[in-house]
């Protein structure tokens, strides 16, 4: 077989060049070895690698892999707060809830609540005033006042949840994943800062979907409303909302921001208490027809 | 033999200088902070320190300037394919608008690398003065969009430097040199959880500092058919800094280069080692690079590292210098591969 003479000649020249430099190569080997020993750097702790692996798996959409890695970490060490946080984020990611779009969330929350108060005072309240003027009895006026406070709280909550307008309606499986994410974080009492804020935001996202399902009565989709059920749902909703606001307050380190959130929470609780108090003071039949109110707000209800 | 022994001792000593040093969070496998001047330096990366530059470029290793006969003035503008996404960082860094910077990173969550600069230099024989009125270096990535972790290096620098090289006594094989650089640096560099910043528990600010670097260098060659030589440069050695909040370490750059007999000795290659303590995979500290000079007017440059490769061409027509290079590198954050980034750089300049 003929060989490629030029090719082999070049290879030989290459080898010869290397051979003449052999002793220098030995010296370099010593230098490089010394440097490698001297500058070997710190090897990455395996635990930190697992966190980064899980985060990267979530980035790539491999949520189940991330869940498996961090579940194993938590099994080995149930006190591992970082693993707990990443695991919750993996479930939230699987439910389609991502926080990278909410950089200015703090400003949005305060603005939405304030905006809702202003809008209510200048628009919705006027509608209620007009309806109440036409009320035929004091009983009717009481009923309207009670529902005004319920509508107000629902309007405010919807405005708050409007921040998450880009979160799609969750399927039952997604809802379970989001609930799982929240329940993973709830058990840890020592989270601070971003982790608590994250928990609050996940709870708010869960609330968005709960309003459609768990708090259906409050949506006034049915023309007939059971007042006892309405009052109970208001109570439960108040607890959920207070939990969310409590997380927002705990996460904030800035005094003025905390004060603003305290005031916002106090206002929301006042509205809830007012609504529940108004409902409890009614002496009407337990089930009433609210279609006239729904129509006034341009909506429809199911009979 | 004595000289090589001294070389080894010096190398070990230098490596001990940074063995226990701290580095702020950084991208271990992305070369966003290379001090390149054009496509050639961009492609070679740190191998630039162990290769003699072509006539269209300025030597990264000032020791190579010993004995040169030159009188040239160069102006260069280098822009990459991400310049439109990153040019906004310049004003944001200078105005210390941290929130805008974070928003811009969130708008580009995928791994992104960018290098853009305008520079000029004048070389007179063995010394040169360089002025870089603008150098923008960006490396950023967002991992875990559900609970975002932001990794960012965004810096804008202005630099004035002076470098030169001389022979040691009458030994024409042994050259030493130094690069003295004054850098005005605005940088936004950290790794953080986005929600920690929103809640206020982490504050990430633009750091502005003025730094004076002194970077000694040496090369030693010996007579051989392959014109081999070894070189050593200590980069990032700070003589002065106005803000000590951003740690950095001096980095020894060690290379062994050759110019084979074949190919009319137009090819120069180097095996290069950078002693970076934050690069934990030892293989990632090595690079192989080279330059092939067709003539004084046209050259190719290439490089190969563990997770990186690049190819570029630089040419001159009359007083106009043009260059084009492309480099593909792997983002590695804390041991995890985040993604591969390909950057294309275009160089346009004048030389007199």
Summary tags:
heterodimer; A: 303 residues; mainly alpha; two-stranded antiparallel sheet; 12 helices; 2 strands; 72% helix; elongated; disordered N terminus; B: 352 residues; mainly beta; Porin; 14% helix; 52% strand; globular
CATH topology (fold) name of chain B: Porin
Count of helical regions of chain A: 12
The main sheet of chain B comes to:
14 strands, antiparallel, barrel
**What's the number of domains of chain B?**
1
Give the rounded overall mean pLDDT of chain A: 75
Counting H and I runs of at least 4 residues, what is the number of helices of chain B?
A: 6
Summarize the main sheet of chain A. 2 strands, antiparallel
Rg of chain B, Å, rounded = 20 Å
Shape label of chain A: elongated
The order of strands across the largest sheet of chain A is: 1-2
The CATH architecture of chain B would be: Beta Barrel
Number of strands of chain A: 2
Q: pLDDT under 50 segments of chain A (min length 5)?
A: 1-21, 33-44
Percent of residues in helices of chain A: over 70%
Largest interface chains and counts:
A-B, 61 and 59 residues
Q: What is the structural class of chain B? A: mainly beta
Nearest-integer average pLDDT of chain B: 88
Report on this model:
Chain A is an all-alpha fold and 303 residues long. Helices cover 72% and strands 2% of the residues of chain A. Chain A has twelve helices and two strands. Chain A has helices at 5-20, 22-38, 46-59, 63-76, 81-94, 105-133, 138-161, 172-186, 194-210, 227-251, 255-280, 291-296, and strands spanning 224-226, 287-289. A two-stranded antiparallel ribbon of chain A has the order 1-2. The termini of chain A are far apart. Residues 1-21 and 33-44 of chain A have low confidence and may be disordered. Chain B has 352 residues and is mainly beta. Chain B has one domain: Porin (Beta Barrel). At the A-B interface, helix 1, helix 2, helix 3, helix 5 and helix 9 of A face helix 1, helix 5, helix 6, strand 9 and strand 15 of B.
């Amino acid at each position: 077989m003929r060989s490629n003479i030029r090719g082999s000649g070049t290879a030989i020249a290459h080898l010869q060049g290397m051979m003449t430099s052999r002793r220098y190569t030995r010296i370099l080997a010593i230098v490089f070895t010394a440097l490698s020993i001297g500058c070997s750097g710190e090897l990455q702790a395996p635990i930190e690698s697992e966190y980064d692996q899980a985060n990267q798996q979530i980035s790539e959409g491999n949520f189940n892999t991330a869940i498996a890695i961090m579940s194993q970490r938590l099994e080995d060490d149930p006190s591992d707060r970082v693993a707990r946080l990443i695991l919750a984020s993996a479930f939230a990611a699987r439910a389609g809830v991502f926080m990278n779009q909410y950089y200015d969330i703090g400003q949005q929350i305060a603005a939405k609540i304030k905006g809702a108060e202003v809008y209510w005072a200048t628009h919705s309240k006027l509608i209620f005033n007009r309806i109440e003027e036409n009320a035929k009895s004091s009983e009717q006026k009481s009923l309207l006042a009670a529902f005004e406070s319920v509508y107000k709280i629902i309007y405010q909550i919807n405005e708050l949840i409007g921040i998450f307008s880009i979160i799609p309606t969750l399927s039952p499986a997604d809802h379970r994943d989001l609930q799982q994410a929240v329940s993973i974080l709830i058990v840890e009492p020592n989270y601070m800062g971003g982790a608590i804020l994250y928990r609050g935001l996940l709870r708010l996202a869960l609330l968005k979907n709960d309003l459609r399902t768990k708090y259906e009565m409050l949506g006034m989709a049915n023309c007939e409303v059971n007042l006892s059920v309405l009052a109970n749902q208001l109570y439960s909703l108040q607890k959920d909302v207070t939990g969310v606001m409590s997380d927002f307050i705990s996460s904030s380190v800035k005094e003025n921001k905390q004060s603003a959130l305290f005031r916002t929470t106090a206002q929301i609780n006042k509205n809830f208490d007012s609504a529940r108090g108004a409902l409890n003071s009614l002496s009407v039949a337990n089930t009433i027809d609210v279609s006239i109110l729904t129509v006034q707000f341009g909506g429809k209800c199911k009979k | 033999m004595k000289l090589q022994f001294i070389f080894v001792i010096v190398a070990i000593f230098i490596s001990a200088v940074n063995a226990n040093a701290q580095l702020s969070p950084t991208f271990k496998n992305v070369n966003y902070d290379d001090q390149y001047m054009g496509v050639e330096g961009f492609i070679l990366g740190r191998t630039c320190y162990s290769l003699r530059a072509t006539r269209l470029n300025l030597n990264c290793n000032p020791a190579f300037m010993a004995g040169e006969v030159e009188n040239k003035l160069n102006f260069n503008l280098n822009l990459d394919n991400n310049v439109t996404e990153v040019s906004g960082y310049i004003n944001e860094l200078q105005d210390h608008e941290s929130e805008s910077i974070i928003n811009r990173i969130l708008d580009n969550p995928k791994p992104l690398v960018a290098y853009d600069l305008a520079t000029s230099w004048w070389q007179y024989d063995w010394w040169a003065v360089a002025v870089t009125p603008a150098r923008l270096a960006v490396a950023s990535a967002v991992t875990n969009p559900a609970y975002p972790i932001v990794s960012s290096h965004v810096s804008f620098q202005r630099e004035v430097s002076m470098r030169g090289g001389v022979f040691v006594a009458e030994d024409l094989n042994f050259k030493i040199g130094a690069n003295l650089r004054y850098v005005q640096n605005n940088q936004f560099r950290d790794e953080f959880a986005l929600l920690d910043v929103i809640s206020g528990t982490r504050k990430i600010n633009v750091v502005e500092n003025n730094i004076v670097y002194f970077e000694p260098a040496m090369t030693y060659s010996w007579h051989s058919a392959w014109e081999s030589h070894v070189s050593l440069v200590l980069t990032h050695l700070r003589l002065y800094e106005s803000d000590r909040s951003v740690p950095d370490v001096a980095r020894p750059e060690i290379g062994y280069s050759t110019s084979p007999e074949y190919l009319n000795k137009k090819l120069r290659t180097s095996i290069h080692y950078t002693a970076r303590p934050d690069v934990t995979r030892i293989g990632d500290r090595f690079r192989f690079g080279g330059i092939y000079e067709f003539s004084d007017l046209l050259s190719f440059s290439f490089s190969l590292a563990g997770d990186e490769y690049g190819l570029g061409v630089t040419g001159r027509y009359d007083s106009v210098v043009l260059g084009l290079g492309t480099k593909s590198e792997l983002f590695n954050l804390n041991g995890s591969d985040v993604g591969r980034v390909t950057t294309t750089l275009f160089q346009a300049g004048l030389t007199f």
